[in-house]
Amino acid sequence: MKIFHGELVRIKMMIRPFVIKRYLNSHNRRLLNVGAGPHKGKGDWLTADAFKAEADIYLNVYSKFPFPDNSFDVVYSEHLIEHIVVDKIAHFLQEVYRILKPGGLLRITTPDLEIHSSNYVSKNDIFFTPIIDKYKARLDKQKNKYWLIRSNGGAFMTRAVQRFYRHRFMYDYEILASCINEIGFTKSIKQSYGQSIVEEIGQQDRCDRAFETLYIDAIK
Predict the structure, then answer these.
(1) 85-125, pLDDT tens digit by residue?
(2) pTM over 0.90
(3) Looking at residue 101, which CATH number applies to its domain?
(4) In this structure, are residues 85 and 44 in contact, taking their beta carbons and an 8 Å threshold?
């Protein structure tokens, strides 16, 4: 489904306060997945998205989040931050910080600039070939868009520019950790696929993205 329009947006906005209230009242341990898309994940999560109707609630990350301060134990965000315009990143992280309980966890994942650049410099065809092959399969439908994706550099750029995935920026650990710490989080930890200071949170990571992903746990 494409981005919510018209009546669907209004319906989602009308029922959102009731969905949130019911979730908060029925859960002592509260888990929020921001930018969840159609994925419900493992466990009892409240899912939020601006584009997919399968999510529990509609959420525009550019606005104030519709949750009380200190209301969630965990906020999980998988491959979302790279889609946020750069001048709204501070707002996004501040809102996550606000709604997390003291000691709460932000789990954030995104394509890793270091992984992509190091594989590009080392000419690692094994890393980039699956990306190139995926775009070759799409040439018949969108030839002009994918025509340049024929080399490691072309595959790298699909993660770095807006035209392919609507990405706004590409992050490494140093960039994100610095931003996270400035917002007020007490600690940021670089993790790997499936690994988290809270075991069940790592279980939310999607295996198909592990090869290219930066994983960070941030503690309020």
Answers:
(1) 999 999 999 999 999 999 999 999 999 999 999 999 999 99
(2) yes
(3) 3.40.50.150
(4) no
- The CB-side HSE value for 40 (13 A sphere, CA atoms) comes to 5
41 token code pair: 């994940």
CB atoms within 10 A of CB 126: 8
Q: Based on the domain organization, do 85 and 179 belong to the same domain?
A: yes
In a domain, 144, yes or no: yes
Asked if residue 88 is part of any domain, the answer here is: yes
97 shares a domain with 79: yes
Cβ atoms 75, 96 nearer than 8 A: yes
3-state secondary structure of 191: strand
Give the domain range for residue 136. 114-165
Is the separation of the CB atoms in 69 and 99 below 8 Å? yes
Residue 105 sits in the same domain as residue 128: no
Q: In what order do the strands lie in the sheet with 31-34?
A: 57-58, 46-49, 31-34, 72-78, 100-111, 213-219, 187-191
Rounded-to-integer distance, Cα 171 and Cα 45, Å: 26
